[in-house]
Amino acid sequence: MNPTPAASSPDADEPEAAGPTPFEMLGGEARIRALVDRFYDLMDLEPGLRELRAAHGSTLDSARDKLFWFLCGWLGGPQHYIERFGHPRLRARHLPFSIGILERDQWVACMHQAMIDQGVQPPLLDRLTESFFSTADWMRNR
């Protein structure tokens, strides 16, 4: 599920007006960087996320940058990730990691809490959580 809201028009003769992207609704790059930083800070702080944290290796610096670059584009902003690495190929890039239901649920819970901590309001919070869950579930490889 793409997080970008679908434009709709009650009158088919009128052009569809594109609403703000989730990137814009979240507040742009600075706010997405803060979201990503909170996500990885929680991963380091919360004992209930230890399996997720263990999958990320000894340092989170590279993961922070890659998730920030990816989310900017995925949410409708600048395509920083694609400019650096090409198509994200999320499933293929995550195949080396063992991802099951526990890791999926920890990832989604961590991102959900990070969004709450950063003040993401419903219904955007709900829509993004659903999109993150769908993507994380698709990444499972065990």
UniProtKB/TrEMBL annotation:
Region (Disordered): 1-23
Superkingdom of origin: Bacteria
GO molecular function: heme binding; metal ion binding; oxygen binding; oxygen carrier activity
Keyword Transport: yes
Residue ranges of the TM segments: none
Keyword Endoplasmic reticulum: no
Keywords, sorted A to Z: Heme, Iron, Metal-binding, Transport
Reported cofactor(s): heme
InterPro entries per UniProt: GlbO/GLB3-like (IPR044203), Globin-like_sf (IPR009050), Globin/Proto (IPR012292), Globin_bac-like_CS (IPR019795), Hemoglobin_trunc (IPR001486)
Pfam families to which the protein is assigned, alphabetical: Bac_globin
Record-stated family: Belongs to the truncated hemoglobin family. Group II subfamily.
Protein name: Hemoglobin
Organism: Sphaerotilus hippei
